[in-house]
Design goal:
six-stranded mixed sheet; DNA-binding; Lambda_DNA-bd_dom_sf (chains A, B); six-stranded parallel sheet; Rossmann fold; LacI/GalR-like_sensor (chains A, B); DNA binding (chains A, B); homodimer; 12 strands
DNA sequence: CTGAAAGCGCTTACAG
DNA sequence: CTGAAAGCGCTTACAG
């Protein structure tokens, strides 16, 4: 391992000077700087990251904390896209990313404590947004730089990046209404998640504003899993009065819905129209392709990383809540093709 | 920040003693240990990770290096599953994971150099396996603990975890042959990837052993993208003599194949049977569900992390190459259901 | 069983 | 523009 001292010795200068050259200190002569840089190159010098961060009290590292049952998240296919956004921005800003998946709740706070109090990372990106999350409580209390992808009511000071999920669900529902549907159902996710609550609100508002009926039996709650969508269908399609349009919380669930309908012998969109959320890459490959609300997954990650780094570097948040725009991608699942219509 | 000195002062012992208590040094009296531990608890002491690793010259951290065009990999839906395996094992062993995505080739070696020579991590997990990879050359030359998920001929000393892709492709092909197919095609990926080469070998061996014809026009190379599969179909189905069975390099490509066939008006498996690789979660949700070779993605990641950590801790590799078993999951895309047959 | 001292590799006022 | 010195928070022979 070649250190700053080794370079100093060879270059005939002091370690302080080498350090200044490395950090591009302004008051270093051109010659000295060039000579030292040449020697660093020749000797293959690389600064010891640990030593540097010990004195600078900064690690140039952020941690991504995955929700506890990581399985669920990894099933969410937009996770890769989210990660891609986070990585793109943090790499650009010169930050490394630490990935953490806790197994148990106790484990989770244990792990995060270690990272936070052990000064292992400069900031934390939370991907979960459970209500009354003790983790957020802790981070907030210690004023540790944190950004939440999602929404929290309880902690107005915590940075967050989210979609306007209420509006997104409103848009999805309105799209079905514009297509002429009057009986619209909602296949939701875990009701404790804010995202599910928000989308439920938007769905209901669209019905209310257009004077269409809201029927509690047309709302099915479940998980972010295809099985949920699958099961929802055997229930919904068994009702005496069935919806003709469906808003679905997630594309993967949408896949399950599609499979359920196919097995029951129904055709999409002829018997039932479908709009879901997240616009994962495979949505357009479904049979038929699924209409989906694109939530700007990449931008969600990119922005989260960006505002967290800004907070770390400037110590004051310009804006604690960022909203990423969404847009509806219309595909065959919610619109009759001209050919089929005629 | 409460340090070891603060604890020492309050406990009335030396910093050395506190340090020994933290690391459970055997020759420390029960009383001292208990008192110090109590005070640490009270004062909320957390060891500074950076200081520790500066002196111990170990970081308890591994880096995952994503292949250059991260987009491609993230499209591969089994990436999440792989990561899950890696994280499960490394968390268990007390290692943190650093995630790195380089943008350019120059960037990549720059980033990895920084991590390796800056003593930022103790080991590296490579997810790419390009031929003649300068990164592997570099890591091998410096004997830096590295594990490759995939295969390399050039570096027999580098740890690697892989499937027997030749055999897997052989099995997939034989499955189609057993179903009675005599004209079998292969939709492959980028021919420079070892995985594509290996699977091609297995495909050919199955044909050879059963005396079936190999036709170069029945082999289409492409990317790990659904578009590749889609395009392959317009070509293959336009041939005067078409295959009746198809081995497809990846499930996502398989989705594209399915879409292409549907648009062209063909039915799977009646007009064409299909087997692909990786068994991503959505394979069973395709219409029809896709038969796929499960490559044990989770185990691939888990094992990679495991043997790397063993190498780091024991300094000698028991076995440089590990093979994860695969198995064929038969679904509707390659087998006529009884109902349909009758 | 415990402490004083040196050191890991770097940075940064302070002095010149 | 440059150097000597102190220090970041920890560990670990060495001595007792």
């Amino acid at each position: 391992m070649v250190t700053i001292k080794d370079i100093a010795k060879v270059a005939g200068v002091s370690p302080s000077t080498v350090s200044r050259v490395v950090s591009n200190h302004p008051r270093i002569s051109k010659e000295t700087s060039q000579k030292v840089k040449r020697i660093m190159e020749e000797m293959g010098y690389h600064p010891n990251v640990m030593a540097k961060s010990l004195v600078s009290k900064t690690t140039q590292t952020l941690a991504i904390v995955l929700p506890r049952p990581a399985e669920e998240l990894f099933q969410d296919f937009f996770f890769g896209e989210l990660l891609r956004g986070i990585l793109a921005q943090s790499t650009r800003a010169g930050y490394d990313m630490l990935l953490t998946a806790a197994t148990s709740p106790h484990d989770e706070s244990e792990t995060v404590s270690r990272l936070v109090f052990g000064r292992r990372v400069d900031g934390i990106i939370l991907l979960s947004s459970r209500v009354n999350d003790p983790l957020i409580d802790m981070l907030d209390k210690h004023k540790f730089p944190t950004v939440l992808i999602g929404r929290t009511e309880d902690h107005p000071n915590i940075l967050s990046v989210d979609n306007n999920n209420e509006q997104a669900a409103y848009d999805a529902t309105m799209h079905l209404i514009v297509q002429g549907h009057e009986r619209i159902g909602f296949v939701s996710g875990p009701p404790t998640l804010t995202v599910a609550q928000d989308r439920m609100q938007g769905y209901q508002r669209a019905l209310r504003e257009t004077g269409l009926p809201f029927r509690s039996e047309w709302v099915v709650e479940g998980e972010f899993l295809q099985q949920s969508g699958y099961r929802a269908m055997s229930f919904l399609m068994g009702l005496p009065e069935r919806p003709s349009g469906l808003v679905v919380i997630d594309d993967v669930v949408g896949f399950g819905v599609l499979r359920g309908l196919t097995e029951l012998g129904y055709k999409v969109p002829d018997d039932l129209s479908l709009v879901s959320f997240n616009n994962i890459a495979l949505s357009e490959l479904a049979q038929p392709p699924i209409s989906s609300i694109d939530i700007g997954t990449y931008q969600l990650g990119y922005t989260a990383s960006q505002i967290l780094i800004r907070l770390i570097q400037e110590e004051n948040a310009h804006q604690t809540r960022m909203i990423i725009p969404h847009r509806l991608i219309v595909r065959e699942s919610s619109i009759h093709t001209v050919a089929k219509r005629s």
